[in-house]
Write a structure and sequence with these properties.
This protein has helices at about 70-80, 105-120, 125-135, 140-145, 180-190, 205-210, 215-220, 225-230, 235-245, 265-280; strands spanning about 5-20, 30-45, 50-55, 90-95, 150, 155-160, 165-175, 220-225, 250-255, 260-265, 285-290, 295-300. The chain is α+β, with helices and mostly antiparallel strands. It has 2 domains: about 5-160, 2-Layer Sandwich (Ribosomal Protein S5, domain 2); about 165-290, GHMP kinase, C-terminal domain (Alpha-Beta Plaits), CATH 3.30.70.890. Bound molecules: cytidine-5'-monophosphate (C5P). Cytidine-5'-monophosphate (C5P) binds near residues 138, 139, 154 and 155.
Amino acid sequence: MSASITVRVPAKVNVQLAVGGARPDGFHDLANVFLAVSLYDEVTVTPAHSLRITCSGPDAGQVPLDRTNLAARAAELLAARHGLRPDVHLHIAKDIPVAGGMAGGSADGAGALLACDALWGTGASRAELLDICAELGSDVPFSLVGGAALGTGRGEHLTPLEVGGTFHWVFAVADGGLSTPAVYREFDRLNAGTAVPAPEASQALLTALRTGDPTALADALANDLQPAALSLRPSLADTLAAGTAAGALAALVSGSGPTTAFLAKDADAAESVAKALLSSGTCRTARVASSPAEGATVVSR
Ligand code: C5P
């Protein structure tokens, strides 16, 4: 058995997030089209006397280092299923913006799970890993598989999707986070008294992904949580407007926000949108990335 294992895991953007009404369990049925993007966290696991977490990177100070971290919970769940003790040092080299909407916490959960499975030789099947991911959170299964996928149910049932080209993105990172449950509660408040239709994937969007056509994808991007995120954080409208004015093909809130995503026609356009966003004063930082990106992968052992 090797002394340590490192797994690389991508961030995601939701190119379509169709949200249904609240379910009796408090979750919402979704048609959630996930696309993995080339911003990555790396999770390294090393045997230790007891479970502990450390984190490095520009946003490290905002990452919880206790057992609420999904990486710790992943190690505990896998260990419990296999009669082991979760005695590992988990180090997260964090490059995914922490503000929210890019599944950085979910990425760390999926990464820790794959890394612990390799370190402990538990040999969990893909189905078992996906099961544990779904227990950790609605977005965690996608962090494991990457690429592009349609998530149904609360987002955890995945159908892989074909992507026919490379898409270029800019992500504007806001100051401070937005709580995902609060955004869903605001969605419920804004839709109170209306019959929310059952969520469905857009065929135009799936075709745009399959053909790799950024203009068609720009026309089809949709996020039902965007009005709720804007209601809780009205200043995000300024960020969206700044990216659009700088030539982005389309702009939207990423997931439950507050990170905003801008689709560009190519890599050069993405660089210039990022520069304009940085100097606009409407965000903390702006990052360029491309998609699709590979899911959680062991990169060193
Ligand atoms: O599954 P996860 O722990 O990431 O979900 C966080 C919160 O987001 C849930 O507690 C719920 O309030 C909300 N949520 C939801 N419907 C979903 C996914 C998440 O209402 N499909």
